[in-house]
Design brief:
Helix content: 40-55%
CATH topology: Rossmann fold
Number of helices: 5
Distance between the termini: 18 Å
CATH superfamily: Response regulator
Shape: globular
Structural class: alpha/beta
Strand order of the largest sheet: 2-1-3-4-5
């Protein structure tokens, strides 16, 4: 069974680029979402195997708060996507036990590597 991935990214071009890279590797991208609220709705409908979560999103919830709410109900591994790697942001993400980070800008292979590492870590 193919692995399903939810992309939560507020930049449409970035989300499409990530989705394209993942599809080339045989992953199923179940949706590209641009807000935390929409991500919560999507996960309730269709639980993915992995979530790529931007930290800065549209709407009231940022990616970290969205991840916390998802993890209260579902044990889904989350890899953060961010242009911000400052200490306070990284410390906030630690509360959600992330499976990795993609720091913008990144290459398509970086996405694949992060996804594979997170999925492998989740199987153990």
């Amino acid at each position: 069974m193919a692995t399903t991935i939810l992309i939560v990214e507020d930049e449409l071009i970035a989300a499409e680029s990530i989705a394209r890279s993942l599809r080339k590797q045989g992953y199923i991208v179940i949706a590209r979402i641009n807000s935390g609220e929409k991500a919560l709705e999507q996960v309730a409908k269709n639980i993915p195997d992995l979530i790529l979560m931007d930290i800065h999103l549209r709407g009231e919830l940022d990616g970290i708060e969205t991840a916390k709410r998802i993890q209260e109900q579902y044990p889904i591994p989350i890899v953060y996507i961010t242009a911000y790697s400052d200490t306070s942001t990284i410390e906030r993400t630690q509360e959600t036990n992330p499976y990795g980070y993609l720091i913008k800008p990144f290459k398509p292979q970086d996405v694949i590597n992060a996804v594979e590492k997170a999925l492998e870590g989740n199987r153990q």
